[in-house]
Design a protein that fits this description.
The protein is of the alpha+beta class. It has eleven helices and 19 strands. The radius of gyration is 24 Å and the shape is globular. It comes from Candidatus Sulfotelmatobacter kueseliae.
Length: 468
């Protein structure tokens, strides 16, 4: 895998080839391997190693980027030429800032507003060294569980070792390596299904047997689902269901989204939108989070309190967005304004976004079992899918339940029910949370991984019953 020293040598070669005012080089890539199974049999095993170098050049306020995965002299010369030629034909960008130097990227220019977390190691030799045989052994355990319950299983066991780095001509250089293992399991019965998914930089945190048993139990327990009418129910959302809907509001926690008036937070900064028990952080240093501690320009990521006791406190800023907001008439409506280390690589049209979401835990966390026991009538939801936005300003979403939806009555799970379509506002949902669990690292299919709790929510709106 590409090392920091090797990347530094490549950057030096690129810098010598360029005639631009400024040069920035992003490195990304690594090794990825995957074992896929279906119908209780492994049917695919693939492995790939690839590294990409992305070169951005600047000429008098004009900037452009070009990329290659070939590092020989001719390829590097060609990618530099492409980036320069593209930059020279762009219109000047009045908001383009000089590339940050090492001090600015580290936040030393304004320590009073920065809270840059240290991150734990996210590289584990055991994960990097996973072999096809080890993944096959994990799949064997999953298939054995399916066989015991007379189910059909499908899914993926993958492992990866990755790097990303940034170097620029103003002396900035930063590098990050990490590993990640992931298991996704679906268990299928005649008229029901169950699902579980988990990932971690440390493969020791993943137990294929436990995940398979949980998915299988959901498929078995939801068999012969009954149909109950659509309506407003108390729901218990497992963490995967929580993150898949919450993820639809996080693009809006962006200074550029506020400026463009495409955020549901426009005109709502500093207002109480959610319940008292909702506090949300973006925290790359959290021990259950993953990813690099710097953004697409090399600026160190700040720990940001987005929501505090239901009140929207801050959004995140790339460098140029922060400068634009400072000049705008709405600066007092955007919260504290400074680059927070959440920008995407330039040039881009989206600005920035929080990517390391952590929900604060409640004072008195409840397990899912305790939530069920305290529910007289409700629905337990494993996961959601096919989610789409209906009303961007009210954050009204629609989607469906799947892979384990259960009726709860008298404090007990009474069996599976047919899946529902929902139409529900995120503002309403996060204003009606009765109980929460201990926040856990969760992953779904509709949004990126987060640290979120299970939630018990009042009056969740199911609008129709599906046909499966």
């Amino acid at each position: 895998m590409l090392t920091r020293d090797q990347a530094g040598e490549i950057f030096d070669r690129i810098k010598k080839l360029s005639t631009a005012d400024e040069v920035e080089v992003l490195f990304s890539g690594g090794r990825f391997a995957l074992t896929r199974f279906a119908n209780n049999t492994i049917h695919q095993n693939v492995a790939d190693e690839n590294h990409v170098v992305s070169v951005r050049t600047v000429f008098g306020g004009r900037t452009a980027r070009a990329s290659t995965n070939q590092f020989d002299g001719d390829s590097l010369r060609e990618v530099v030429r492409a980036a320069e030629n593209l930059a020279k034909v762009q219109h000047p960008d009045p908001d383009l800032l000089p590339m940050p130097d090492a001090d600015e990227a580290a936040g030393s220019a304004d320590r009073s507003v920065r809270s840059t977390p240290a991150i734990p190691s996210r590289y584990f030799e055991a994960t990097a060294g996973i072999t096809p045989e080890q993944r096959a052994e994990g799949v064997k355990k999953i298939v054995s569980v399916a066989g015991r319950y007379k189910l059909t299983t499908a899914g993926v066991f993958s492992s990866a070792e990755s790097c990303e780095g940034i170097f620029n001509s103003r002396g900035l250089s930063d590098w990050h390596t990490q590993t990640l293992a992931e298991i996704s399991i679906t268990m299928l019965a005649k008229d029901s299904s169950g699902w579980q998914k988990a990932n971690s930089p440390d493969v020791a945190n993943l137990d294929p047997l436990v995940l398979a048993e949980t998915a299988a139990k959901k498929a078995v327990d939801s068999a012969r689902p009954r149909e109950i009418p659509a309506g407003k129910y108390t729901v218990i959302l497992e963490p995967a269901a929580v993150l898949d809907i919450v993820g639809f509001m996080l693009w809006d926690y962006s200074g550029m989204a506020i400026l463009d008036q495409r955020s549901f937070l426009t005109g709502r900064m500093g207002t109480k939108l959610f319940g008292d028990n909702i506090s949300i952080w973006d925290d790359v240093g959290h021990p259950l989070q993953t990813g690099a501690p710097f953004d697409g320009e090399g600026v160190r990521r700040e720990r940001i309190g987005l929501v505090e006791n239901g009140t929207v406190k801050r959004v995140v800023f790339a460098r140029a967005t922060a400068e634009r907001v400072k000049r705008s008439e709405d600066r007092e409506k955007a919260g504290p304004i400074a680059a927070t280390g959440h920008g995407f690589p330039l040039p881009n049209e989206m600005g920035e976004m929080p990517l390391n979401i952590v929900f604060a835990g409640p004072r008195d966390p409840q397990s899912i079992e305790q939530m069920i026991a305290s529910t007289e009538s409700g629905v337990l939801v494993t996961r959601l899918w096919y989610i789409r936005e209906v009303d961007p300003y009210e954050k009204l979403l629609t989607g469906m339940t799947r892979d384990g939806t259960f009726l709860v009555e008298g404090g007990r799970v009474q069996g599976g029910v047919r899946n529902f379509r929902f139409n529900e506002s995120l503002i309403h949902t996060l204003s009606n949370v009765e109980a929460m669990g201990v926040p856990a690292r969760a992953c779904g299919e509709e949004s990126f991984d987060m640290v979120v709790p299970a939630m018990k929510v009042r009056e969740f709106n199911f609008t129709e019953v599906t046909k499966f």
